Amino acid sequence: MAFLLNRWVKRYSLNQNFRNVSCENCPKLKSNLFGALELSQREFLDANKKCNFYKKKQTLFVEGSLPRGVFCINEGKVKVFKTGDDGKEQIIQIAKSGDLLGFRSMFAQDAYKVSAQTLEESNICFIPKEDFVSLMDHNSVLRNGIIKELSTELTGQAEFITNMAQKSVRQRLAFVLILLMDVYKEEPINLSREDLANFVGTATETLIRLLKDFKEEGIISTETRKITILDVPKLLNVAR
Question: Are residues 118 and 235 in the same domain?
Fold first, then answer.
């Protein structure tokens, strides 16, 4: 009985900690686009955004729905993906703390071309469209940062598509692991084999076989689903 009580107390406390996060106290403020905001603008943002706790595998938005604003990841990770006619996912991005999601479709005044779902327990803030646009109108640094972000993403997507189309599965796995190193930083890469396969664009069985090869070659180590990169130069060489 005590075990069950402690578990619920822990869960309730976690949920409480994931609400009403102040931009001023956000550790990612200076490194993301909102770092350009003045104090009064951060206060405006705090007053108009909503912060919500998301469990693992909860949906932020789905392909075909209309955007109503922008999502800012305070903590956690989110997969962005398209779903094929056969129902199989193709992951195109793993978003991390500090990233903004949804503003591209919002500016295009078009439906989402992708879906987004949490990969782990996450705290995510939502900024309504009219408030986000108002901040842009009154802060040229934020506006220019958004334009630069859109340009950078276009270049990144072109590189991603080229790599996915022209490289072998082994090369694609190495390339994706390099991308994930930037997402997980010093932590082990923690993705299900199915999600990793959907990111690489291959069957789960093929992915598992290649991971075993990488492990035998001393490139990675694995512990359950977690992957640690042991030899970055060798991984880069495989990705070329």
Answer: no
